[in-house]
Amino acid sequence: MPLLHWLTRDRDIHAASETPYRLLEEVRELSCGERDTANMLIQGDNLDALKALLPYYAGKVKCIFIDPPYNTRSAFEHYDDNLEHTKWLAIIYPRLELLRELLSEDGSIWVTIDDNEAHYLKVIMDEIFGRANFIQNVIWQKKFSPQNDAKFISDQHDHVLVFSKNKSAFNINKIIHIDKIDRSKNMDDDPRGVWKSVDYTCNKNKNERPNLYYAIIQPNTGDEIWPKETAVWRYSEERHLENVNASLVYWGKNGKNAVPRFKKFEGSEVTGDVPVSLWLHQDVGNTQEARKESLNFNNDEPFSTPKPERLIQRILQIATNANDLVLDSFLGSGTTAAVAHKMGRRYIGIEMGDHAMTHCAPRLQKVIEGEQGGISEAVGWKGGGGFRFYRLGVPVFDESGHVAPEIRFAPLAAHIWFLETGIPYSGSADSPLLGSHEGIGYYLLYNCILGDNRPEGGNVLTTKVLACLPPHDGPKVIFGEGCLLSDERLKSREIMFRQIPYDIKAR
Known about the structure:
Layout: H1 9-12, H2 15-18, E1 22-26, E2 32-33, E3 40-43, H3 46-57, E4 61-66, H4 85-102, E5 103-113, H5 118-129, E6 134-141, E7 157-164, E8 175-178, E9 195-199, E10 216-217, E11 224-225, H6 237-245, E12 249-250, E13 261-265, E14 270-273, E15 278-279, H7 281-284, H8 287-295, H9 309-319, E16 325-328, H10 335-342, E17 346-351, H11 355-369, H12 376-379, E18 386-395, H13 409-421, E19 433-437, E20 440-444, E21 460-461, H14 463-468, E22 476-480, E23 482-483, H15 487-492, E24 495-499, H16 502-505
Parallel strand pairs: 3-17, 3-18, 4-5, 4-16, 6-15, 16-17, 20-22, 21-23, 22-24
Antiparallel strand pairs: 1-18, 2-18, 5-7, 6-7, 8-14, 9-13, 10-11, 12-13, 19-20
Helix pairs in contact: 3-4, 4-5, 9-10, 10-11
């Protein structure tokens, strides 16, 4: 396969592996809403941030959308978009490498770009993701009127390059249309009109319809919901995902019912179309619409190059389902995170500049409060949820491979907890016992948490240190710089010891 070469290629293709690993440190005062959320807004260089996310989310992101600088040789307030071609390639290559590592096997990446770099980007993505995993070059009509001052031909479109991680595992959702919309009142104020709930199961058993016997995830509790073996689901798993994508699955007034119902609208017919490669502005929005949306959350300093919420909605409709994880590492004004939040997807947004605080965070706060701009009415958005705001800490490991002395107990504790449990840490980080999860107690001996400042003291698991640890009745995982207890002793006390830094790097 042909490869793209540029002046600094040999150095740039190793940039991702040579990027130091950093911890993510929450800024509590900039976080907002529910504390048990896994939604993340990260301020910092996106190469460092993507590297920091690998231990948490490698292979877990269902959909990546990025809107990188276009390298158009024009000035933007929030981006240096006047990058020399070689520098642009040096920036994009290592970031795409890390994004591929984060993508799930059935996931996809969508990249907006214009003609200045689109064809070079296609060749790079062929190399990183594999040419066989190319899905489509979607053409988005970003403007609805000609640019009369154009020197040659008016530029009306952008590209959206779409690649899968593994085409054989990748599936898409059809575009759902609901005709004859009735704007009358209904029990949950659905903007599509009057509806009634219909049984989600049918009078067939597991043996008759094995394809209709599968687990459904309750989006608000995370529980696995199985039908009765004597009354399986009415819809196939594929059709169920289409129902979820179309917001046709009802979980009761508080959203926490144990069994779903189907929303059947009066005088309506649900149809699904295969997505096409040409997206018109009247269907997915345009740049003028996007700029108006940005004024709703920052009228004093509007973002220069936002994308419309309807464009991101279309991508997430096709590529994701409820509760899937979405990532945008060039978050800009926060559109991707705002749309994902309203559509019931989990999300991670990364933005380097101050507008992570001046644009992204205020926008998401308004979403949580129930703002009604963009796609809010179309998806019945009423508010709720939350996000956590993070910044990047210092590099975790020094040149000799030891944990850097600047690393504090709390962020290392949060990092280890997430690696072990897969859920955000919400403890106080003032004790070696971080907490328990599924019956296992997790401990961290670091930074003299027990008050013993001697080199051989509280960071090493000894008989004396073990006696000082807060009790946990059950299996224990203890991280520390060393262990002087025998394997027999550890086994008798149900202890799995993991050594810092080696067992942190390896996980």
